[in-house]
Amino acid sequence: MVFDYLEGGADDESGLRHNRAAFDRWELRPRRLIDVSKRVQSTELLGRQISSPLVIAPTGLNSAFWPNGDLSLARAASKAGIPFALSTASNMSIEEVSRGADGDLWFQLYVVHRNLAKSLVSRARAASYSTLILTTDVAVNGFRQRDLRNGFAMPFKVTPRGALDGISHPRWLWSYLTNGMPQLKNFATDDASDTASQAAVLRREMDASFGWDDLRRLRDDWPGKLLVKGIVTAEDAERCVEIGADGVIVSNHGGRQLADLPAPIDALPSISDATPTTDLILDSGIRRGADVVKAVALGATAVMLGRATLYGLSAKGEAGVSDVVAMIKEEIDRSLALIGYSSIMEVDRSCVARRPV
Asked: Which of 39, 57, 255, 347 has its CA 20 to 30 A from that of 124?
């Protein structure tokens, strides 16, 4: 059940395959006889230096994979010198993660209820989160057949099938019984005690009326950096920038909302052309270091790691996340050397081409 929640996608899950196949349609064009004896992958994102063009993406219900999973991800990101984004649907609260991890913390906002959203934004500001991410692609929940079949929900529902599933995974079950049932901690505080709002986030019923004027007000209310996530068209990206967003996250929610959307890597070039001075972050489908190099070449400043780091979290907790980040960094370094670039900041569109059909 938990693996299906991590691995699954929307509808027939063709969006998952499309996201990965889109990377394969781009190939790297190497330069030769270049001094690549020293290589650098550090870069600047939103005015801050980061060790590699990587961000750990906001993901929900991480304690289903590992106890205090949000904190494990945040600490691994801090050690790696890259930002970590906490989801509204986290199992640890905004304040708990801020107290338990240093580094560059971002907060991702789902607008379930307007007043509750204002409270979450205020709490993130008070807890010194540097960047706010507005996710725009969840007007309604995607049709995820695996979750429906398994009855995956928060709180976990005890069914005969679910009980058998848990018993057949004794290590996970022991951890679950020892650490207690994961909760949506951001909706279990004195400042977020509206039971209707808590029920809505459990059903992923977002405020489908949230529009451009609301984004303007959010921009006015938030003093830090503001990113808009879920953008796959140049028109929407341009409008975000006009309103004052500091960057755009090109994403189709990892194929978890609607299968029939553009692969973000294919949408990236036109968005980059339309917003040439804006930081763009690519999300969805990143698995290897070469994927990161291709994304940067096509206009991304950085990429988000979602499933990739959750695989590591599920296997070994914080150490597993660190292992995954280290592997991807090593692959970025190797890719740069083998295509003749000494710095990730030198990479541009000249080093990629569409594969011949």
From this structure: 255
